[in-house]
Amino acid sequence: MTGNESEYTQKEEKLSLTDRFITAMFLPKEYGKLLRLSGGRIIQFLVVLILLVSVIRYAVPALGAIAGMGGMKDIIMNRLPAFSLEKGSFTLEKEVDWADEVSGVYLLVDTDTKEFQKEDVPENMVEAILVGQENLLFYNQVPGIGGMVQEMKWKDMGDFTLNNEILAEHSYVIYMMLLSVFVFLYIAEMIKYAVSGLLYAAVMLLLVRTLMLELSFAQVYKTAIFAQTVGAIVNAVMYCINIPVLILAGSSFSMLVTVMLMNRVFVSMRQ
Description:
By secondary structure, the protein is of the alpha+beta class. It has helices at residues 3-7, 17-26, 31-35, 39-68, 72-79, 164-169, 172-210, 217-227, 229-241, 244-270; strands spanning 83-86, 89-92, 96-100, 105-109, 127-131, 135-142, 146-153, 162-163.
């Protein structure tokens, strides 16, 4: 073990959450403090970061759209097609087929189809929701893992009955459903972030060896976790704005700034 590595594995630093964010985003020369954090403090940082990213990317656009259309009750009665869920069967007045090819988000509601399967999700989709007569399917593409699917069958809801009028009277149900979707997306974002960190760590480990730094893969992975912070937040903001050119720029910036930060960290260690 070199003197540099010893310096970066000393007693754990007592950094506040705010200090952790500031250091991760702007102070690559101070990453030694982050690498000395306990696993619990790193997990706490991740939970807050992914929550922030998920709120910016998903919650803000959704709540903004709801407010812009006059609120949930107005949407249900005047903008939502007539629907009915009764005795385990869902029907909708007209088919809904929407896709954002830039962000890879897809929504299909087709009650002429009895049940959707994973194979019904179009190629190159990152996130998808498919609603059929007998089931609802959530799909999320996770880098390095593949497509993750969660399914809900309408018959599992028993004798539950729902239509436009009932839903408008109990509009909080929609917010509960949106919250459930948000939790699912939050978990997916957490997994994607962790897997991306593994990929960055595997690539940057070559640089570590070139610089003759005897850091373990775990230390390089910790560095990747913190170095992704700026890119993740900026990328989420670009998705929130939802302009294709900015989304592409945000993704490119995220990768570039992560690699640059990790490079600065390791060069500083070497010096």
